[in-house]
Write a structure and sequence with these properties.
heterodimer; A: alpha+beta; YaeB-like fold; 4-stranded mixed beta sheet; 3 helices; 4 strands; B: 258 residues; mainly alpha
């Protein structure tokens, strides 16, 4: 019997950052989470340094990055934050 | 063996270990012809062709000759030689004026060609899709790097070496392992070259190797993206504070499923 799919949990911070996104981006992010992230959450890498130790992964949708954690054995993906990656101009 | 028609493709990789520089792969038949004719003189084209030949022989062919399933171990075992070759190659490339602009102008066309499977039609679509996604991700990071690099240089009026030093310092200050970033960039470049060469040769007997190269490209591109994303988070106080707050919230959250 195959393992159950991962469920999604969202922090308030994730929701707060998500609702600021343009509607079309929100739709793309949701679609990618369901089609790419949920079936294979370990495919996407851990952040480095202190964040790797905390088990925080990063998943990209276009120029946006979604930071998340995986909780086992609950098979839960906790979405922490979504933000727009800059293009190097700062 | 049916070779892809490169005359109509005007293809070209690629991207370079950006830690060293931000120049691209020079093969004259891979550059969009209009850009090519407008920007590159005969001597430049000859230099590009010589570089393309060298990179095919020294990087692509070995990757396309090792037994399928052994490509990553081949890269690991030959990392010093691959790195040395790429550094030497990049030093040559940086002497060719306007090449970066030319290569970057060609990239959207290359990704379109991949998406539509005009390159390497003998292979499964999954290879094209995986390569396309890895290349798109790498292009995003390449643009970030190039912009950051140029921005530093312009705002501080620095020469190239000083710009690189400043950029390295910023990365180290953000807790990024420069060696890790450098190594993954070298590996990514090598597998991209192997992939694009294999796709253009369009020999279906290479299917297993190209599938392996595409998988490696995806993994290395994600690895590099995580390094640069970490850099962005740790070097931006606001984003860092938001992530730290979200993490604290998550560990206090009792598995509330939304």
């Amino acid at each position: 019997m195959s393992k159950p799919s991962y469920s999604i949990s969202k922090t308030k911070k994730y929701v707060k950052t998500f609702i600021k996104l343009p509607a079309d981006v929100q739709a793309r992010v949701d679609k990618s989470i369901n089609s790419d992230l949920v079936p294979n959450p370990y495919k996407y890498k851990l952040l480095k340094g202190q964040y790797a130790k905390l088990g925080i992964h990063t998943f990209g949708v276009d120029a946006y990055r979604i930071e998340y954690m995986i909780e086992e054995p609950e098979r839960l993906i906790k979405l922490l934050l979504v933000f727009h990656r800059s293009e190097g101009y700062r | 063996m049916r070779r892809t028609n490169t005359m109509s493709l005007n293809l070209a990789p690629l991207l370079v270990p950006q830690v060293l520089t931000h120049r691209g792969f020079p093969s004259s038949d891979m550059i969009p012809r209009k850009v090519h004719e407008a920007q590159l003189d005969k001597i430049t084209i000859e230099k590009m062709e010589a570089s393309a030949k060298a990179i095919t022989e020294n990087l692509a062919m070995p990757l396309l000759s090792v037994p399928a399933g052994s490509i990553e171990s081949y890269i690991t075992q030959n990392m010093d030689a691959i790195t040395s070759f790429e550094i030497n190659y990049l030093e040559q490339i940086t002497k060719i004026p306007d090449l970066t602009k030319t290569i970057m102008a060609a990239m959207p066309e290359i990704t379109k060609e991949l998406e539509s499977e005009k390159i390497g039609p003998a292979f499964g679509k999954d290879i094209h899709d995986t390569f396309h996604d890895a290349l798109t991700l790498e292009l995003f990071n390449e643009n970030f790097f190039t912009n950051k690099f140029l921005n530093n240089g312009i705002s501080n009026k620095l020469d190239m070496q000083a710009q690189m030093s400043l950029l390295f310092t910023e990365f180290v200050g953000a807790g990024i392992d420069i060696n890790e970033l450098f190594n993954v960039s070298v590996k990514l470049f090598a597998v991209f070259i192997g992939l694009i060469t294999g796709l253009m040769d369009n020999d279906s007997r290479q299917e297993a190797r190209l599938r392996e190269l595409a998988s490696l490209a995806s993994r290395y591109a994600e690895e590099k993206d995580s390094l640069i994303t970490t850099f962005e988070i740790t070097s931006n106080k606001e984003t860092k504070a938001e992530l730290d707050e979200a993490y604290r919230e998550a560990i206090n959250q009792a598995g509330q499923v939304v």
